[in-house]
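Here is an idea for our session: we take a single protein and study its fold together. To get us started, please write out a protein record for me. Once you have written the record down, we can walk along the chain together.
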Amino acid sequence: EYHKVKAGESLAKLSKKYNVSVDQIKEWNNLDKKGTILPGQKLIVNQTEAAQKEPALASNDRGSRNNKETREPAPTKTYKVKKGDTYSSLATKFSISVEDLKALNSKAGNKLKAGEKIIVSGPEPAAENDNLASKGNSQENKKQQGKQKCINYKVQPGDTLWRIANMHKGISIDEIKKWNNLKSEEVVPGQVIKIVVPS
């Protein structure tokens, strides 16, 4: 049961009217110590209504907290370029493909300058990163996108693109070069290669 406050009413009057204590009304409605109320304000004035309201409030609080936690984006990481750094070396260092690194820093151009800050990871979710690998593919590949997954392969000593392609059935050297924006078949140990395979 709710009571709509009228001009001139006080908690003392309401406590007598509904046979409850002033402290109970304060507690049920989260009022301040003085018990300030305003005309038009709706107050809980019985135990049953208060009991129903508390679980709902607790649930809403938890829901709002969870929403805030899930909606908060991951922070963007930046890196200050040092002399001798290249997209390839930084891609290996931060376990990201050269293609993704260039996409994050399109304003920086193809050559990095010592002292400039670049982005090495963004707030986009991992699933979105996986989809970047299939950009530029044919319409047929787009239809099959739901049946594919993207994996990152770390190049081992002695690896070649030919060997990596053979390790993953149905993958060609040209596809690996296209997914990773490689101009040659040369790879180095530690380099991270993006490969799209059937899920």
